[in-house]
Amino acid sequence: MLVASHGYERRRPYSIAVAPEDVERDGWLELLVGVDASGVAGPHLSLECGALVDVEGPLGRFTFSAGPGERRFVFIAGGTGIAPLRAMLRHALSEPGRRIGLFYSARTSGEFAFEPEWRSLARAGRIEFRQTVTREADEDWTGARGRFGPGDLAPLIHDPKPVCFICGPRSFVEEMPRVLGELGVGADRIRVEEWGSESEKSEVRS
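RESULT FIELD:
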């Protein structure tokens, strides 16, 4: 959806990060908003409590079917690309019997969004969860480091082959289908969305 402070001329795209069931229960939407070191999102959006915002949408075609017949899903996120995948994953969890994996890559260990949630779901056995850090990591980080490859995703790929949803920066989105292909996942089982593309970087005129 396109979002900006009320009356601001240009809006920017953000993905909804909650499932329809969450919105129906809680009565609000959640977005994942990047901020600078001062906690500021930018001139287009005030994050002060009670600030009015203009919202247009939802828009786009990167969606999860309301009632897919599939039972096995793997969600593959790079950076803030986790936002739409969180919405899909939470919706997928609403129906029992589905097997769900999440692979999440971030530049640093401090950039994993919703990390306590993923770890809690993994501990409860509701998802399989793997992470990797591609750049600097804190000394106490004990997880995977460096570029991802087939070995990182293989533990999440089971028979029958899952439907895979990929969202992240351009290089991430371009490389992941190749990695999945090496693991035997066909192109017809892969859905992709580029996050951090030129369409995101440029402001959208309302």
